[in-house]
Design brief:
Proton glutamate symport protein; malate:proton symporter activity; 433 residues; mainly alpha; transmembrane helix
């Protein structure tokens, strides 16, 4: 049974943390020091690029296995496929439609505002060691379909072929699901491996201040202080993009489902505040389960839609992927026409499903997405390491709100909501029992 954790207790722990222990503060300090070193000692600054590259390598090292574990456990854990199939199909349809809208909004906004244009950074200078220069590739549909299936599952993991890993993961998960209770030991092992990999991600994130220091120092030393202006523009553009998504996507959906988006956000405000500080949706998962049930949504809907949403419904992360990927293309002068961007959108629709609620996983999936494009250098991620935490606060906030909205929408479709209780709770606001 999931243990309910008092949000106020968690928030209290966050408030007592010393300011210098906060990772966001540490990253900001790393950025400031990096700017100083890059501006005052450019010769030294240019030698610090490997600090950012090592951080990226640490993330890339485990992302394939994380996606395998997340997808496998999420699908195979649904045992009675006949009983929950209807809810699952409705949830997945909703997830696909809304995340597609998010990707389109992200692509349109970044193309209109163009915060990365003018940086004129040579992509060859940002390629990590061993990363070859790849021209933009144009596959036929037949070649694309053939490339989805790996010749060897182990080879797909070794090469970091994200689409092949996903295909293998789905097939493996369906095989486990067909075995019923016999698959439980394997699921337990997959869950254990997943938690171990997330520990590696959390450890890598502790190195983010050092990585940000090295990346910013190199950027300023190589390209001058003027290179920082587009990063500030990216932050402003992304927060505007999230606001647009709330206005033209989530608010109308909430109206359709018969509830106020603002009242829902007030109801889960403690969780939203917490994820701004932690950049991790996992930190509020138990509390959200309890609050959504208290809103009058049937347990079967909450128990399936919310956990599935954590793996497959990343509205804010999709906005992030679209914005940052195109920003890096703009910054490095990589030509991305609308055909290539639509292809990128297709890749993002798949790779975004491998994201998790753990801080740092978005960078991991972004790295794999850029590798799949074979045009935007993976090493260019170093350019945005310093502002990633600021961007993450917005996209995790959006993810959490989006998943709560999704649970209410599917509950409406299933006629599985006590409307009187929902209205009473939202009007009164959440109160500790």
């Amino acid at each position: 049974m999931t243990r309910n954790i008092s949000p106020s207790a968690v928030l209290g722990t966050q408030r007592t943390r010393r300011f210098y222990e906060d990772l966001t503060f540490q990253v900001l300090v790393g950025m400031v020091l990096g700017i100083a070193v890059g501006a005052l000692a450019p010769d030294i600054g240019q030698t610090l690029k490997p600090l950012g590259d090592v951080f990226i390598r640490l993330i890339q090292m485990v992302v394939g296995l994380i996606i395998f574990c997340t997808v496998t456990h999420g699908i195979a854990s649904v045992r009675d496929l006949g009983k929950v199939g209807r809810i699952a199909i409705k949830a997945i349809v909703y997830f696909e439609v809304v995340t597609s809208i998010a990707l389109v909004i992200g692509l349109v906004t970044i193309n209109v505002l163009k915060p990365g244009v003018g940086m004129n950074i040579d992509p060859a200078l940002l390629r990590t060691a061993g990363e070859a220069a790849h021209p933009a590739s144009h596959m036929s549909m037949g070649e694309f379909m053939l490339n989805l299936v790996p010749e060897s599952a182990i080879g797909a993991f070794a090469r970091g072929e994200i689409l092949q890993i996903l295909v293998f993961s789905v097939l493996f998960a369906c095989g486990l699901a067909s075995m019923g209770d016999k698959a439980q030991p394997v699921l337990n092992m997959v869950d254990t491996v997943s938690q171990s990999l997330f520990w590696v991600i959390r450890l890598a994130m502790k190195l983010a201040p050092i990585a940000a220091f090295g990346a910013i120092a190199f950027t300023v030393a190589k390209f001058g202080l003027k290179s920082l202006v587009p990063l500030a523009a990216l932050v402003g553009e992304f927060y505007l993009t999230c606001a647009i998504f709330f206005l033209i996507a989530l608010a109308p959906v909430a109206w359709y489902a018969g509830f106020s988006l603002l009242k829902l956000m007030r109801y889960i405000r403690e969780e939203l505040i917490l994820v701004i500080g932690t950049n991790s949706g996992e930190s509020v998962f138990p509390q959200l389960i309890g609050k959504l049930k208290r809103l009058g949504i049937e347990e079967s809907v909450v128990g399936l839609v919310l956990p599935t949403g954590y793996s497959f419904n990343h509205d804010g992360t999709c906005l992030y992927f679209a914005a940052v990927a195109v920003f890096l293309a703009q910054a490095t002068g990589t030509a991305l026409g609308w055909e290539q961007q639509l292809s990128l959108l297709g890749v993002l629709l798949v790779t975004s499903k491998g994201g998790a609620g753990v801080a740092g996983s978005a960078i991991a999936v972004l790295a794999m997405t850029l590798a799949a494009t074979k045009s935007i250098p993976v090493g260019s991620i170093a350019l945005i390491l310093g502002v990633h935490r600021i961007l993450a606060s917005a996209f995790v906030f959006t993810n959490i709100t989006g998943n709560c909205v999704a649970t209410l929408v599917v509950g409406k479709w299933e006629n599985a909501i006590d409307r009187r209780q929902l209205e009473s709770e939202l009007d009164a606001g959440y109160r500790e029992v």
